[in-house]
Amino acid sequence: MPDPQAPPTFFAPAGRATGDALAAECRELLVHPLTEVLLGSLDGFALILNAHRQVLAANAAFREALALEVPEAVQGLRPGELLTCIHVEEGPDGCGTSEACGRCGAVLAILAAQAGLEPVNSECFMTTRREGVWACREYRVRATPLALGGHDFLVFVLQDISSEKRREALERIFLHDLSNTLHGLRGWAELLQMEAKPAREAAQHIVSLSDQVLGEVRHQEWIHQAEQGGLQAVEAPVETRGLLAELRATLPRYRCALGRALEIADPAPGTLHTDRALVFRVLLNMAINALEATPQGGRVRIWVEDGTCFKVYNDGEIPAEVRDRVFQRTFSTKARHGRGLGTYSMKLLGEGVLGGSVGFESTEEGGTTFWLRLPAAALV
Q: What is the pTM of this model?
């Protein structure tokens, strides 16, 4: 039966060791000769946790990655708090206690290891915000119970597999899309060769498909550069009406637009000082995402509010249990092993490079609306 005196939580138990109790646990652990050997022998980020999931000690690799100068800097905090997970502030007692934590591979592994007293492996897809910079990280995690000096500790190891997941996404998404577009190019070229279609019509389709290929290649380059911190916005005056007119002309070329109504409202005349290509790419991703989530016969609406806020709407609802993962690199609304990079790059480019904000609202009654809000200073 739940303890009525226990601190409130949305998932994992709340409550922490503090003061003398925390200091005693740290001393007990750090004086044991096995601790230094254990932390020094593990690859990746290695932490030792207490029963409250608080970090008592961490290896040098973890401290160096977080620029922590003294070992004591980790003590008493939980893994997500040190790694600046965006969901930390949503729970009444930090890491592990928010609703989103119920879907976190790291928290689930820790709780399972504590309950079963045996090692547990999992994966953790974490969204972080450090010094205002949004990022996604993927970790392979292992939680292993450790009994020392009458205390029940847990060895928690995180191995960064972001590069591996990035490569998988590139192979699964980009190469798949590229292959489909190249097949289309070949088909129109064959029709032209057989003179089954007028040359001008075939040439127009070939140019359009070639532009799609170049656009996807450029998109992947931007993602890579943005993740490395090397992509800078090239700002210039951009007419809002012209931007949406280009979107209106481009979207029908995509297969996902077939059989779906696309309504793009003409905005009031206005000029933004921003990077046209990046803004267009974010809006294109939003629109494609909405079209792919819309059944045949459905509709997608696009409009502008207050001169700087672009909105894309579809009738569907994103299930509540996955909303906190929408902008993760590996997430997809379309399939278990889905595409994922579209929503991820919206956030990466829209916030990390353009300096705006990207988000969404989704309800059963009101459908789903994604938005890109550019800084007010962008409005000329």
A: 0.78
